[in-house]
């Protein structure tokens, strides 16, 4: 059976995705800085690796067929952590995946990462980091899926999404649970071609919207 490494498994989306994969009896390696944050997860399909993304975490990829990079520096940190986690750790993860001949790399990016210059303000350094990490993955030679979620909310999963950007910018949002369920679908239905798409709450079942 395949094994998926989730980088950032104690974050909101990362933990939701970990739980969903475990419920579907998928082998998961959860990479976290503090394993106590996953103390409530008990499963024979789970193994936890405790490492800092600012260091060398290459051993975590050993034996993993697939990687989900769901780590993020968080909104309360400075630009230094954005560079170290959202850019540098993501870049290292892709390098490690190539070294370990990982079959599929799933990157949780962000809406706006395709064109950071279209955004002004405090969010721009984050989008630049995401853009550069995405570009590195695209050029890595790995099979990849890059998801660019819209503004994240804590709403319950509707299990209905769209990859088409709404004309009304106020509707350009998506629940974290919907993102996690989309990641579950992608992780258990590995694509035959590389893909990049934005993701929003919508009206299509995840399995048809995220083909």
TrEMBL record:
Q: Where is the NAD(P)-binding domain?
A: 8-189
SUPFAM superfamilies linked: NAD(P)-binding Rossmann-fold domains
Q: Which domain of life is it from?
A: Bacteria
Q: Which InterPro entries match?
A: NAD(P)-bd_dom (IPR016040), NAD(P)-bd_dom_sf (IPR036291)
CDD domains registered for this protein in UniProt:
SDR_a5 (cd05243)
Short name of one Pfam family? NAD_binding_10
Q: What PANTHER family has UniProt attached to this entry? A: FLAVIN REDUCTASE-RELATED, UPF0659 PROTEIN YMR090W
Name under which the protein is recorded: Oxidoreductase
Q: Which organism was this protein described from?
A: Pseudoalteromonas fuliginea
